């Protein structure tokens, strides 16, 4: 009987598309559309309200994460993704037809839209990759996140052109998100497979990898022990990893919620700003795909530490920006750093604590990163309302990211490499 071709690699492409349509595209779209909503008098928004909405969005990427992780563990990723796609569709339509004040903005964008993206994308996608790969987990995660990362490059250009073609109607951006919600549902139901055993296969396509073994020594630490959730969260290294990874999300929250506003207030040309935001997308893609491929060769937590140092340099350039070159440096450093962290953080959690409680471990990690990073947009929005500039917020965020870098470098790698 002919052996079935390993489905894991085609699945990484499908999962990348799922991530692209949800976690990748929604927030990238919001950083273009929501500032336009701020300029619409009928919406009744202020800088503080706008920033608070982003803060709530980021916070809701984490607060419900344990529940979403539990749903993935019990019902499977495909079920969770399908429900997430349906919620995302409804939330996008609500942004167009229902949101007319700050309260509804908070509820629809800050809560419902945010939860839909982690159900259809982040947690479900990354948990599924972890189930399908062990020895080549870093490469698989890089492929998936690389495809998803195309959204950060494509969204600013696509959404900006769609809004331009519609005569400046910001609502057209949310129509596009509604279409993506429709795409996600059948992909989840008919293509996604929760784990290799569902179709008679094994992780990485072979029995040795499925057992956690490998034909040759692994270059990075990959724990093969069965570590329960309660054991993982008792480890100080679990929290150092979570706090370290938070730095990348703090930087991304600052860029998406205040980047356009900050550089506009400094007098930069709007077209140049949009182009720079797109460059951040390219840099993020490089970080997710190219640097992500190194995660099976270099300890991913060390990659995270180096990425955080790069991010600090970029934020300081933005705070003192006096020319477009410094703005581009900021977006390149932020994109490259965040992309590297977004890919390597779930890989780090799986490598360090195994797969026994991976959805719960990952969701708790994301809860930590979002609680920390959610303070950034509202802090920056309040400072902007008070001073007319976000410069101080950039300096504060640089300090926070620097502390996160110290945490990442403080994680001890066990000497014994477990296959």
Automatic annotation (TrEMBL):
Highest taxon of the lineage: Bacteria
Pfam family, one: MFS_1
Keyword vocabulary terms for this entry: Membrane, Transmembrane, Transmembrane helix, Transport
Localization of this protein: Cell membrane
Bilayer topology annotation: Multi-pass membrane protein
Transmembrane annotation, as ranges: 7-33, 45-67, 79-99, 105-125, 137-159, 174-192, 237-261, 273-291, 303-322, 328-353, 365-384, 390-411
Domain Major facilitator superfamily (MFS) profile span(s) in chain numbering: 9-416
Annotated protein name in UniProt: MFS transporter
Species: Raoultibacter massiliensis
